[in-house]
Amino acid sequence: MSVPADADQRRAIAPVICYPTESLRPAPLDLYHAARAVAIEVTSLRIAPREAGAFTVPAGSFFRISCPDGSQVGDLNLFAADNLRERFFSGKTRALHGTHVSTGDRLWSCLPWLRPMATITADTLDWYDTDPHGGRVHDVIGTRCDPYTHHLLQGQDYHNCCHSNLTRALAAHTGRSLAEVEPHVHDVLNVFMCTGFTRDTGQYFMKASPARQGDYIEFFAEIDLLGVLSACPGGDCGAEHSSDAAICHALAVTVYTPPKGALDGWQPPARSGYSGTHGLG
Asked: What confidence score (pLDDT) does residue 119 get?
């Protein structure tokens, strides 16, 4: 197929940001940091390698995901605590904040709610930036390792992948069946995962996470949250995922609650103000 004479000119057209965010109200990080300074630990959860666990966080509290033993990637689902239908929207979070998130970025819920669920308030890996391969940390571009893709590519059933881990943990927490909760399991925040796209083929790649023992990412809960976190069977995702070959470590979740009055003036965000009529009202 011939190359058009103006090919270079077409390629040289400047890009336009799809969703300019200047009109978004920035997170009040100073207020959050002051509240975090006086918050106390109220609960903690240790998630075994290749497993998942569920936890709840009241609005106005903080939760930390950390690597207590060594480098480990985690797949995070978030829900409104009282409504599984309102869940983390990785695609819109990506559109608003970029392919990878860090301090000051927010995790947004799906339509029709479209409101901040959590705000990242601290990240010990915020120094990593972009590496020579184009890799960055904490991505909202991947999905989660799942048994369906594994079977498609390997011809085998594998049950400790993140999709299955999240499904089992959500079923156990809610008391519902696997079949009932599986449709609620959604695309994740890949915590600590280092990813990008190859320059030649545009393929999604992963590389060994730069996280080390003691690293963490911390969030402020904008609404009452139910979190489900899987300790990925890929370990640091430096070689493969969905297997028993990788060295894996536990993940830890710790919830901190500030005293009354520490967040004076703050209110949980309201759901989207859109009328919902879609032109027919």
From this structure: 98
**Helix (H), strand (E) at residue 53:** strand 52-57
- The answer for residues whose C-beta is within 8 angstroms of residue 89's C-beta and 6 or more apart is 108, 109, 110, 111, 114
The pLDDT tens digits of the residues spanning 7-30 come to 999 999 999 999 999 999 999 999
CB 46 within 8 A of CB 64: no
| One-character DSSP codes across 61-121 | -EEEEE-SSS---EEEEEEETTEEEEEB-HHHHHHHH-SB--TT-EEEBPTTT--EEEEEE
Are the C-beta atoms of 17 and 109 separated by less than 8 Å? no
Assess contact for 62 and 240: CB atoms under 8 A.
no
CA gap 35, 141 in Å, rounded: 31
Backbone angles phi, psi at 266, to 5 degrees: -90, 145
Beta-bridge partner residues of 53: 229
Rounded to an integer, what distance in angstroms lies between the CA atom of residue 168 and that of residue 229? 11
CB-CB neighbours of 239 under 10 Å: 14
Report pLDDT digits (tens) over 63-85.
Answer: 999 999 999 999 999 999 999 99
Spatial distance between the Cα atoms of 139 and 91, rounded to a whole number of angstroms: 11
Integer Cα distance of 115 and 87 in angstroms: 10
Domain assignments of the chain as residue spans, ordered by start: 42-252
Q: Which helix (H) or strand (E) holds 138?
A: strand 136-139
| φ, ψ (nearest 5 deg) of residue 49 | -55, 140
Give the length of the chain.
281
- Copy the structure tokens of residue 182: 């599986």
Contact 36, 201 (CB under 8 A): no
CA distance 238 to 230: 17
